[in-house]
Amino acid sequence: MEFNNVTIIGGGTLGSQIGFMSAFHNKNVTIWGRSDQSIDRTKARIDRWETAVRIDLNATDEQIKNAEKHLQYTTDLKDALAGADLVIEALPENVATKDEFYDQFKELADSNTILVTNTSTFLPSQFAEATGRPDKFLAYHFANEIWKFNTAEIMPQSKTDSALPAALKQYSQEIGMIPVMINQEQPGYILNSLLVPFLNNALILWSKGIASPEDIDNTWTIGTGAPSGPFRIMDTVGMKTIYEITHNSSDPDLQVAAEKVKTMIDAGKIGRESGEGFYKYN
Amino acid sequence: MEFNNVTIIGGGTLGSQIGFMSAFHNKNVTIWGRSDQSIDRTKARIDRWETAVRIDLNATDEQIKNAEKHLQYTTDLKDALAGADLVIEALPENVATKDEFYDQFKELADSNTILVTNTSTFLPSQFAEATGRPDKFLAYHFANEIWKFNTAEIMPQSKTDSALPAALKQYSQEIGMIPVMINQEQPGYILNSLLVPFLNNALILWSKGIASPEDIDNTWTIGTGAPSGPFRIMDTVGMKTIYEITHNSSDPDLQVAAEKVKTMIDAGKIGRESGEGFYKYN
């Protein structure tokens, strides 16, 4: 199974990055957007990724031109799906939005087209039936700035054809990614399964007044050689996301910590992007 | 409060490193050992640390000589304690051994001598009364290869004089350490409070067959920029320690994982030092 004609549903941050890197590696890519305005925004994002890969990957003019040549845009879903080997759904994390697309996909897509979702918060089993082809459906998850943080997490659900993960593994390698094979459904995939509890534990140490963000980060970076400790990572992730993933916790210590994060957000300390979170930035 | 005359009780791996780095920074250090044989072993260790700091810190002959000039050894506990500003207990992690020392310390030490313990597994409150001076006692924890992994975790118990942590902070800086101030007793200090659950979560992902050690490590190193993922860290820590800290867990998933670690140990895969753990080493 080889994927050469690839359609991306949704040209947001991740959708546009996946489309761009696929085109960069000679795949014929069509990005579907809801409106001309959303296509314009996608094109502006692609401009930014072009600049980024010039810096981060030393990409040449020729490579950039080649990527552009392999990219098409459309607002017509039927056109977008026609002849696609692989469709990558990268819509917002909203069940209704995704279900609405899967309904149309079921009607419009070729019967042999493979469908994957880039969802970060849902499990693929939740949508498998809605796609109309659970055997040809799995989750395929990328991290922001995929040319640099180049893991591609490949996670089937129970009805996925057993040959499909290997086909996605090959595709990942073809577009410059390091495939991560996840053998069973795992909420949060691998990265968030490790990162979220790690950040939560650090947050509780701080919230309980056991040690300062700086001292906790120093301990981690010196002890493990990591470039950033948990509080610097949280400043990059942003306080709003940290609040989102903590405030409904059943752990009372984490609930208290979430309220302290809320106080920071209310004071405008929402992380690196606002110039202040646990640390100050210039 | 300034500490210039420092006595180390026990010249094992950490005791000899703390003594050596204190002497390296012009502190007058006495290392107490139980017997002439243990003093000999301590001196052999100090030779190794001298070689290591020549490599890791570019230490000069003059600096090494200066450190040696500041080091004394004795098997006489009364002599060791006489005139000490600061006594650092670095005995094996055995309650009876530590209690036996604290009993003698109570009799022999000057009344104004400060006492700290380098225990990694106990809380200082457990020994505070036994020392006879709970207000002058706290935990002071170093990581192996202290010249490189140079955090010094400073953790008081409820009866510690509130001025004492700051004095240890200053001492830490004087001997080239990054002090980590822990405001309340915390089992495992900071590093193990973060590292142990992190390693446990990774172990469970592997044990449940969700992903391979290599794929999990790739996800972590690419996603966070860390030099090592959890399985490479566990290979360095050693499987025996991993088994020790997991097999009594109340989490059934972790118990299953611990049994798989036991199988590895039984097969001789005890980590980096045996040439194989989760990875093979040459």
TrEMBL record, chains A, B:
Q: Which UniProt keywords apply?
A: Fatty acid metabolism, Lipid metabolism, NAD, Oxidoreductase
Q: What GO annotations for molecular function exist for this entry? A: (3S)-3-hydroxyacyl-CoA dehydrogenase (NAD+) activity; NAD+ binding
Q: Which residues form the 3-hydroxyacyl-CoA dehydrogenase NAD binding domain?
A: 5-183
| Pathway in which this enzyme or protein is active | Lipid metabolism; butanoate metabolism; Lipid metabolism; fatty acid beta-oxidation
Catalysed reactions, semicolon-separated: a (3S)-3-hydroxyacyl-CoA + NAD(+) = a 3-oxoacyl-CoA + NADH + H(+)
The EC number(s) this enzyme carries: 1.1.1.35
Catalytic EC class: oxidoreductase
Q: Which domain of life is it from?
A: Bacteria
Answer whether the UniProt record assigns the keyword Cell membrane to this protein.
Answer: no
Where in the chain is the site Important for catalytic activity? Answer: H141
The UniProt record lists the 3-hydroxyacyl-CoA dehydrogenase C-terminal domain at 188-281
An example Gene Ontology biological process: fatty acid beta-oxidation
Q: Which InterPro entries match?
A: 3-OHacyl-CoA_DH, 3-OHacyl-CoA_DH_NAD-bd, 3HC_DH_C, 6-PGluconate_DH-like_C_sf, 6PGD_dom2, Mito_3-hydroxyacyl-CoA_DH, NAD(P)-bd_dom_sf
- Classification via SUPFAM superfamilies: 6-phosphogluconate dehydrogenase C-terminal domain-like (SSF48179), NAD(P)-binding Rossmann-fold domains (SSF51735)
NCBIfam families given in the database record: PRK08293.1
Task: Provide the protein name.
Answer: 3-hydroxyacyl-CoA dehydrogenase
Question: Which organism is this protein's natural source?
Answer: Fructilactobacillus cliffordii
The lineage, from the top, is: Bacteria, Bacillati, Bacillota, Bacilli, Lactobacillales
